Each structure stands twice: as C-alpha cells, then as structure tokens.
Amino acid sequence: MPVAVYERASCQAALGDVAGAITELNRFAQDPALRGTAIAPLALTRLAVLLRSQNRGQDAVGTLQQYRTQFESNLFANAAQSNTVAALQYEQAMALKQAGKPAEARALFENVLRQFPGHPAAANAAWRATQARREELSAQADAARQALARPGAKPEELAAAQRSLSEALNGIRDAVFALQAWADTLGKTASGSPAHLAALYEIAWACRALADVEMDSVIRQLQQDAVARLRLKLATQAPASAASAEIRPPDIAPADVSMPLSERTALEAYERLVTAAPAAP
User: Are 23 and 43 in contact (CB under 8 A)?
Assistant: First the structure.
C-alpha cells in the first residue's frame, strides 16, 4: 500500500495534478501507518519539491522538520536508509531558502556537505550554501549602502554602516574562495557536470554582487574626495561660507572607473563555464 500511494502521487504529478499529488504525499506526513514506512523519506522529499513548486516553502520546512525530529536518528541507524537523511536535509534547506531564511538554509546545506560528502546531494549543497550566504550578505550590504547614502546620517551611524558593509563583503569573498576550491575539485573529477557548472555560475554571480558594491564604494569615495577638494578651495577663497556651502557631488559613471577585480573574476568564471560545457544552454 505505501508504494501504491507514492506511485499514485507520482502519476498525478506527471499528469499535472500537483494539488492531488500533494494531497496524496501528505498522507506520509499525517498517517501513522505511512509515516514509519521505508518509502516515507522518499515520499516526503518529493512532497517538499512539489510544495516548493507552489511557492509553499514554509509548509515544506514544517513537514520535513517534524518528520526529521521523529525519525532521523532511526534512519541514521539503518544502513539501508541512512543516505535518505541527506536528501531530507537538502530539501529542507531548499525550502528554508525559499522561505526567506538563508542563514538557516546555509547551515543545513553545510551540514549535508559535512555529513554526506559522497552523496549526490553534497555536490549541489556546496554551491547552494554559497548562494544562500551570498543572498544573506547581499541583504546586509544593501542595508549598509542605504544607511551610507542617507542624508544627514550621524558619523557614528556612517561608521557602523561601513563596518557592516565591510563584514558583508569579506563574507562573500570568503564564500567565493571556498566555492572556487570546490569548483576546481569538480573540474578534475566531474568537469562539465551539472554541479560543476552550477558552482562556476554561482561564483560569477557572487563576484558580480561584489563588483556592484565595490564600484559603488569607489564612486562614493571619489565623490567625497571631489567635494572635499571643492570645500578646501572655497575655504581659501570664501572662508565665511565654506563650512555651510552645499556642494553637490559630481556625477561619475561606472565606465569612468577601473573594473573591479571581482568583475574580472566573474568574467573568468563565465569563460570557464563556457569552456567546461560549450554546448550547454
């Protein structure tokens, strides 16, 4: 019966009846007679994928966490089923990511990589962890940039924002370095594989995020320097009005600034991606 329930749900999903498939697979989460069966981990992994396809990541998080809390230790103890834990953890991490919890998702991706280094999910968990870290730190960087651009911000507020921005950038760089090492390993053992290509693509995306912030920081510094020079010039020509004069920062186009190192690294990642799989879409 458990296998029949799972196969019925698979057929429904294949025919486009995702809601019906979710209803069937939910039985493995709710029916005590099905929750403890050998096929339950596979069924709930499939359920999580379908829930995410409907943008219901938070529902998937709750379902998988409840099941893992009750059964994960037993699955670990069963040699025939221990590897199913990797898939459950990976899908819960994906659901956490969709639910807007990148820090929790990253921790679970890293746990998959640490506990199941030889499992197929580990190859994807590596770049997914970097992706979650990038999203987490990009949000921090965006908030810091907004604070730095806020008119009338106090010096201590600007200093705190700059510290937060530096921490975010350093965190993204560390994640990129780790993923580059992983991509190099895959390039030797599984060149052109989906995980290898995804890792290279994520390196490029992370470096583009870095380049965007670095370019903004360079332009902002150039503008501040220009304003300071004009204010100094005013101080020598009209001392009385120099301190209170409103000076508009000059417009500086990105094309007028040298390409950041991270932008070059992104281009290199794209080149490696094309070389590894020239026929890939």
Answer: no
Within 15-119, where are the H helices?
18-25, 27-30, 32-35, 40-53, 57-77, 84-98, 102-115
Residues 102 and 141: their CA atoms lie apart, in Å, by 15
**How many CB atoms are closer than 10 A to CB 198?**
19
243-254, pLDDT tens digit by residue?
666 767 778 877
Pairwise CA distance, residues 121 & 96, whole Å: 16
pTM: 0.81
Residue identified by tokens 């019906």 is 20
Residue 181: phi, psi to the nearest 5? -65, -40
Length in residues, the chain: 281
pLDDT per residue as tens digits for the range 267-276: 999 999 899 8
Q: What's the number of CA atoms in the CB half-sphere (13 Å) around residue 25?
A: 27
Residue 59: half-sphere exposure toward Cβ, Cα within 13 Å: 15
CB 6 within 8 A of CB 43: yes
Give CA torsion, residues 111, 117, 119, 123, to 10 deg.
80
Q: Residue 46: which pLDDT band, with cuts at 50, 70 and 90?
A: very high
